[in-house]
Write the structure tokens for this entry.
Amino acid sequence: MFQQSFPLFSPPYDQPKQWLVFLILKLAQAHIVCISQEGMSTFHRLGVPRNRLHLIRNGIDYGWFSAAAMTETQKSAWRRAHRIPLADLIAVCVARVDPLKNHGLLLQAVQYASGMGVQVVLVCVGEEIPGREAYRQSLEQMAERLGVADRVIWAGYQDDVRDWMAMADVAVLASRKEGVSLALTEAGAIGLPLMGSAVGGIPEIVRHGQTGLLFDAADVPGCAAAFVEFARNPEIRRTMGMAAQQLVRTEFNSTAWDEQWSRLLAGLAAGSSVESTL
């Protein structure tokens, strides 16, 4: 099973390692399961036959997350109880505190949006990587330098992220590299509109102009513009949130995941041909 964010594909020497693994899988005539169309396309460009490529998206418990959706009144009450500052837009980022997740761009986008007349509060939910405490501290220092420290909340690790997502107006992820984000998928199930960097499989859940808005992983003004668009257009938040919820229900739920794996494994066990999706 191919995950774009697998450590084997990270620096140093990420490109040679990728080519070596792809060559071994191709020569072994292995069946390769990918979580995204982007991953499948990568293998196909390297010459892996279509009939050995299979798309099975990561599935989540749709009902578990969709049940956590909040009304605007409930959101307001939850924010007050957890001392979330008032703002034009509350954005939640659920991701480990890691350079790969690119929190620094989000901090800069919060400042940039302020210059456009929109106040954004960024709530960061996620654990620190052991041994990298200095990185978290550098982000806090960046927020201070940018003048947005009072609008950035470091919530740390949470056993249950559903309420932290549900209380927000939008979910955002600015990763430099990603498969298909489970955090964005879960937020979509709750009914949040989505924002994400246009890398890996993120565009397959953040479908630009439908379920959310994309920006380049190095584009601070582009991310800020998306913040501003959502802050100024509650109706767009509502319609894109509904579209995201529908997409997750039909394509990213665990029921579909179980059925797809069952069909694939049954076909392989029987020695029959198995359909590929590309």
Summary: The chain is about 45% helix and 15% strand.
